[in-house]
Design brief:
By secondary structure, the protein is an alpha/beta fold. The protein has helices at about 20-30, 40-50, 75-85, 105-115, 125-140, 175-180, and strands at about 65, 75, 95-100, 120-125, 145-150, 165, 185-195, 200-205, 210-220. Helix 6 links the parallel strand 6 (about 165) and strand 7 (about 185-195).
Length: about 230
């Protein structure tokens, strides 16, 4: 497989005075940095990715989750940043192999691609995956590999992964995902809990050892599949 990053966002201005550039600056400063996430690479990626291309909203940079088709949601920018920060692999993002479960709009995948990761993203709704593919290409992220299927089984063909980010909530971390995590400090971030409220769980794998921690309370749409919730 060939991995290639295409960076030709011709229509997206990077001029400091551009209103969208300023909206992203504000989003990063007020919603992400002010709440304690300070990794410079992370902040740079959130400044760079044109979120307005992934959501149809008059206020794409607002401090809120926004609706997607098929009853799904794109997380609030801070929550995307929190998940990304939590899953940062030991060697950093550049060249890391990352599996995302729940492509949704493609925004989280774009953030990971912007960070320099090789991204594989699995979505159970084919229409959402197709739309995300169009939006990722429009924004210049053509190297993200999109897969349609039940992401609770992971994607064994690409394993092992340096990081796995599950952007839907399940009752527990699916066993296949733990198996597909790199034994050399691979990190997984996933909301775990009940259907209506969860806690961000982070798992780090060292050999056969799994080190888990529970972090912030979060609310995500349900992960539906063999190792997730029922329909
Ligand atoms: N990361 C997305 C937001 C995801 S919302 C973004 O940046 O926009 C959660 C997504 O997970 C939804 O699109 C939902 O359809 C998907 N999903 C739920 N269960 C899934 C499963 N078992 N496999 C793959 N995708 C799943």
């Amino acid at each position: 497989m060939v991995w290639r990053r295409v960076r030709n966002r011709r229509e997206d201005s990077t001029e400091p005075g551009d209103p969208l550039v300023r909206a992203r600056e504000r989003m990063v400063a007020e919603q992400i940095e002010a709440r304690g996430l300070t990794d410079p690479d992370l902040l740079r990626a959130f400044r760079a990715v044109p979120r307005h291309r992934f959501v149809d909203s008059a206020e794409p940079y607002a401090d809120e989750a926004l609706p997607l088709p098929a009853g799904q949601t794109i997380s609030q920018p801070y929550v995307v940043a929190l998940m990304t920060d939590a899953a940062r692999p030991p060697g950093g993002w550049r060249g890391a192999k990352v599996l995302e479960i729940g492509t949704g709009s493609g925004y989280q995948a774009a953030i990971l691609a912007e960070l320099g990761a090789e991204v594989i993203s699995v979505e159970r709704h084919a229409e959402l995956s197709e739309e995300a593919g169009r939006r990722l290409a429009d924004a210049g992220y053509e190297a993200v590999l999109l897969v349609v299927g039940d992401g609770t089984k992971g994607w064994p063909a690409g394993a092992p992964y340096d990081a796995i980010i599950v952007t839907a909530a399940g009752p527990s971390v699916p066993q296949p995902l733990l198996q597909q995590l790199s034994e050399e400090g691979g990190r997984l971030a996933m909301p775990v809990g009940e259907r209506r409220h969860q806690q961000l769980n982070v798992v780090e794998r060292r050999g056969s050892e799994l080190i888990s921690s529970r972090r912030d309370p979060v609310v995500f749409v349900p992960l539906i599949g063999e190792y997730g919730f029922g329909e």
